[in-house]
Design goal:
about 150 residues; alpha+beta; seven-stranded mixed β-sheet; 4 helices; 7 strands
Length: about 150
């Protein structure tokens, strides 16, 4: 592979559960995945309630090859607000991954993934707007890695 996707993950436990901090070496961005994210991933995407949390995290990072994001406009925050509690003035984003869409907050080059939803959970208005993001994500993966998602 000419353009390997290299990242480093740190897994740590706090009172509320297992967190993952992922450093993407290509863009010096850190993404933090709190326990709530993996709970939603299990419920909404993998639907595998038998594997351990550690195995599910390994599966997630095996299947997902990065993400592409956009900052949410005030109007676009409605779908996020319907799924999770957010503040109006936060720098919220939506990103597309292999299996769905993640919503979170950005603080500089630190992304905090709050939740993940499948395509069928989006409102019709978001499907159109976020569909363009998915198209760009697929195109970029094909260009960088020569693979179709």
């Amino acid at each position: 592979m000419n353009n390997p996707l290299i990242g480093v993950c740190g897994i740590y436990t706090r009172a509320e559960g297992i967190y993952v901090a992922h450093l993407a070496t290509g863009n010096n961005a850190i993404t933090i995945y709190p326990p709530h994210f993996f709970k939603r991933y299990r419920e909404r995407i993998s639907k595998d309630f038998l594997i351990s949390c550690s195995d599910m995290i390994k599966h997630y990072f095996t299947v997902h090859r990065g993400f592409m994001y956009i900052i949410l406009t005030k109007e676009m925050k409605a779908v996020y607000r319907s799924l999770e509690k957010i503040e109006d003035d936060s720098d919220c984003f939506v990103c597309v991954t292999t299996d769905g869409y993640c919503f979170g907050e950005r603080q500089g080059n630190i992304f905090i993934m709050k939740t993940i939803v499948s395509d069928d959970m989006l409102f019709e208005s978001q499907k159109e707007a976020f569909g363009n993001l998915r198209d760009d994500f697929i195109k970029k993966h094909k260009e960088l890695y020569g693979i179709n998602i």
